[in-house]
Structure formats: structure tokens, C-alpha cells
Write a structure and sequence with these properties.
Layout lengths: L1 H8 L1 H19 L4 H25 L3 E3 L4 E3 L1 H19 L1 H7 L6 H18 L3 H19 L6 H32 L4 H8 L5 H17 L9 H7 L2 H7 L2 H17 L4 H24 L4 H22 L2 H26 L18 H4 L1 H15 L5 H15 L3 H27 L12 H14 L7 H13 L3
Antiparallel strand pairs: 1-2
Length: 480
């Protein structure tokens, strides 16, 4: 009976598992059915999301498999965001991969398998289930990064991601073994109880190694070295996926383990989180200034935004976690929209462009695309009245309320530096001489999806604030 109850709590993961296995069989028999399998994969993600929404509405918080996983509002909120981001990444990919000669049926299957790993990550309440979810997500991601086998950059990106990912997994596993050795358990609750006592040097080292491994997964400095190369080399739809869904899962996992396992020792982990947040903000802002490739610029933008998100975690308060989730939702919309715009930078020969020189004077030749990209850049910079401003505002409000005024001041100052490279994109599009190399996009999915996300990042997004505030506060409350 206990097994049946546990399986009932994992309906979304079970749906995705059977869907991935079924679609893999379809792929084996119909190798050219990539588009059909993508549509079915999006349907499976929608069905899984529907079960998550139902569980969240019913407020059924319960653990599964003797405490290895938990079904709570925080995990369910994260899963919904992950599934939406993954579905968008699936919808925008077929035309791009077909043009690159790489659209194969395995692509949507790998996305589904990665989503299963991410769902386990955000529900994990034990170091064992944490590692299983992390590796399932990571193994799928390594293949996705090198999916365009004819492109040397893609193969290089996959190899770099694999090697550095293995290093990060080793660090995390070593930290987990230290924590287990000194705490006597792999359960977050038991580790938290052990943390109430005097914490020795060995346990502190374990916390440092675990947080270092997780910092790699969220591409936070100083473990960000893989991000620019992988973002540039991977196919753009894959890069859009990496910058959204896996980042949500890794950040949610970081929040859960910090608060549930290490929560009582705030003075130990808070210093680490603050240092990583500030380094990410500064390195992300400064590193992007000299970039000429737009995908590399977005990689440094991702590092920069992770820093702002971690500022909310440094507060260690319910208000701070709620602010993080608000920022995370807005960040996913901004990032996916930006990459959708980059996917529309196509020349007359069918090649995809991604350099600054290619978007020179874009406002004169492709005014709608330039306007959408400008909205995303201004929103990422946190310039009012665009929706990205609200994300930064709530995070800094929570930071000040937690008594971390110096941290908020440094973050606000660094955000001004980061605004420089976002404004550089707008300046090149609107004030440089037209390069006239980008043609009108014939991919209606990209046009409509990009337009909807641009509208969400415009002042129209503020209409979502009441509902977003309620849902994020509800999700954050589950951790306290």
C-alpha cells in the first residue's frame, strides 16, 4: 500500500517516463518522425503539468519512498516552470534543427528524460535521490549539447560540458560523502537535526563541496567557466533549454538543500552564497562587455542573473525565497524570448547569424524583431517599466528587509554595470548602419512565441503580479 501511495505522488514523473520510453520505440521505427514525436512530447509535458497543478491546488504535501522524495508546493511550482520552459524549447526546435540537418527523433526523447531528472531534483529530500536526479538530467544534457554532429563547435561544447560536469558531480559526491560521514544520514531532515549541534570542520568542508557542485550546475561564478563555450557551441534551441529549465531545477535544488539540510547553520552557508552571488554579478557584467558573439553575451547574462537570484537565497527568509521565485519566472520568460529572437537571425542562404555585426541597423530592415529583442534586453537590464525591473525590485526589497543593506547596494551598483552590454545590443540595432543580412523569418512558431514572450515582458506583465505573488509566496511557505 505504501508503494502505491508513493507511486501516486509521482504521477507526473511516471507519465514522462512512459512517454519517453514509448516515443523512443516510435523513434526506432520511424527515424524521420521528429516533428510528430516533438508534438507528442509537448503533449506529455502538458499532461504532467496538469497533474502537478492538481496536486498543488489540493495542497497534498507528502513524502514518497520513505522520505527520498517529497510532493510539496515548492517542488510543484518548480516542476510547472520546468515543464513550461521545456515545452517551449521543444516547440521552437524543429525548423532550426531541420535546417542544420540534425532533426532526429531522439531530441524530444532526451528533453523528456532530462525533465524526469529535473522533476526528481526539485522533489529530492535525500542526498541519494538528489544525485540520481542530477545525473539523469546531466547525462541527457551532455548529448543535447553535441546534438549537431556535423558542427565541430557542438561536439566541442558537448565534450567540455561532459568533462567539467563530471568534475562538478565528483565534487558534489565527495561533499555528500563528507556530510553523510559526519551527520550519519543522507536525509535532509536528519542532516538538519545534526546541524543543530556543534558543526565540525569536516561538515563545513562537506557543505562547501556540495555548494560548489551545485554552483557549477547553475553556472554561478567561480564555477562558470563552461557556460560561454557551451552556450555558443550548442544548437541555439538547446542553449535556450539549458538557460531555462535545467537552471530552474538546479536553483530549486540549491534552495531546498540549503534551507532544509543546512538551514540552522545560516552563518556557515550564507557567507558562501553571498560570495558566489557577488562574484556572479560582477563577472557576468564585466565578462559580457567585450563579447562579439550574441550567444556568449547571453551566457554571461545568465551568470549575472544567477547572481541576482542568489541574493534572495542569502536572506534565508520566506520573503527572500518568494522574491527568488518571482525573479526566476521572469528570468525564464526573458531568456527564452531572447534566444527565440536570436534564432530568427537568418541570412539569405539559410545560415544562422549570431554576431553583433549581423544585427547592425536591424531596426531598419526587421523593425518588429529589433523591437522584440530590445524589449528583452531592457527587461534583462532591469529598466522600468519593463517586467524585468519588478524581478530585481522584489529581490532587493527582500534583501533590505533581511538587514543585508550593503549586499543590496552592491547588487544595485553592479546591475548598472550590467546594463551597459544590454544597451550595446540596442545601440547596434538602432543607431549603426544597416548590415541588411537578416531576412524575414518564415517560422511562425518563433514569431508568435517571441511576440507573446515580448508582451509578457512589457508593462502588460505587471497584470500578472497579484497571481504571481500569491503562487510564489505559497511555494516558499512550504520550505518554512
Amino acid at each position: 500500500m505504501e508503494l502505491n501511495a508513493s507511486l501516486a505522488l509521482l504521477r507526473p514523473e511516471i507519465i514522462l517516463t512512459f512517454s519517453a520510453l514509448g516515443l523512443l520505440l516510435v523513434a526506432a521505427w520511424r527515424e524521420q518522425a521528429g516533428r510528430l514525436i516533438s508534438i507528442l512530447a509537448v503533449t506529455a509535458l502538458g499532461a504532467a503539468a496538469a497533474f502537478v497543478v492538481t496536486a498543488m491546488m489540493n495542497a497534498t504535501d507528502a513524502s514518497a519512498f520513505d522520505g527520498l522524495l517529497i510532493n510539496d508546493a515548492f517542488g510543484n511550482f518548480s516542476k510547472i516552470l520546468i515543464f513550461i520552459a521545456a515545452a517551449i524549447a521543444l516547440m521552437i526546435a524543429p525548423r532550426f534543427l531541420e535546417n542544420a540537418g540534425a532533426m532526429r527523433a531522439e531530441y524530444p526523447v532526451l528533453i523528456l528524460l532530462s525533465c524526469i531528472g529535473m522533476a526528481v531534483m526539485v522533489s529530492a529530500t535525500d542526498l541519494i535521490s538528489l544525485y540520481i536526479g542530477l545525473e539523469l538530467q546531466g547525462l541527457s544534457a551532455y548529448v543535447l549539447a553535441s546534438f549537431v554532429r556535423s558542427d565541430g563547435r557542438s561536439a566541442e561544447a558537448g565534450l567540455k560540458y561532459f568533462v567539467l560536469g563530471a568534475l562538478a558531480s565528483g565534487m558534489l559526491l565527495f561533499g555528500a560523502s563528507l556530510v553523510y560521514g559526519f551527520a550519519g544520514s543522507t536525509s535532509f531532515a536528519a542532516i538538519g537535526a545534526a546541524m543543530d549541534k556543534e558543526v565540525g570542520l569536516g561538515l563545513i568542508f562537506g557543505i562547501v563541496f556540495i555548494l560548489s557542485g551545485l554552483a557549477f550546475k547553475i553556472s554561478a561564478a567561480p564555477f562558470h567557466m563552461w557556460t560561454p563555450d557551451v552556450y555558443e557551441g550548442a544548437p541555439t534551441p538547446v542553449t535556450a533549454f539549458f538557460a531555462s529549465a535545467p537552471k530552474v531545477a538546479a536553483i530549486a535544488l540549491t534552495i531546498r538543500i540549503v534551507l532544509e539540510a543546512f538551514g540552522s547553520q545560516i552563518l556557515v552557508w550564507q557567507q558562501i552564497i553571498i560570495a558566489v552571488a557577488l562574484m556572479s554579478i560582477i563577472i557576468g557584467a564585466v565578462g559580457a562587455i567585450g563579447q562579439q558573439n550574441l550567444k556568449r553575451l547571453m551566457a554571461y547574462s545568465s551568470i549575472n542573473n544567477v547572481g541576482f537570484i542568489l541574493i534572495g537565497l542569502a536572506t534565508g527568509t520566506e520573503h527572500g525565497i518568494s522574491a527568488m521565485l518571482v525573479y526566476l519566472v521572469i528570468y525564464v520568460a526573458m531568456t527564452l524570448g531572447s534566444f527565440i529572437c536570436l534564432m530568427q537571425l537568418k541570412d539569405k542562404n539559410g545560415g544562422y547569424r549570431e554576431e553583433f555585426v549581423d544585427i547592425a541597423g536591424l531596426s531598419k530592415t526587421r523593425p518588429a524583431l529589433a523591437a522584440a529583442l530590445a524589449i528583452f534586453m531592457f527587461s534583462l537590464a532591469g529598466i522600468p517599466p519593463l517586467f524585468g525591473f519588478w524581478g530585481k525590485l522584489v529581490v532587493f526589497n527582500a534583501t533590505v528587509a533581511a538587514g543585508l543593506l550593503p549586499l543590496a547596494v552592491i547588487g544595485i551598483t553592479a546591475s548598472v554595470i550590467g546594463a551597459f552590454y544590454y544597451l550595446k545590443v540596442v545601440k547596434v540595432m538602432y543607431f549603426d548602419d544597416a548590415a541588411d543580412v537578416i531576412i524575414e523569418s518564415d517560422d511562425k512558431v518563433l514569431v508568435w512565441t517571441g511576440g507573446l514572450l515580448a508582451a509578457a515582458n512589457s508593462p502588460l506583465g505587471y497584470f500578472a503580479i497579484p497571481a504571481l505573488g500569491v503562487w510564489t509566496a505559497y511555494a516558499a511557505r512550504a520550505l518554512f
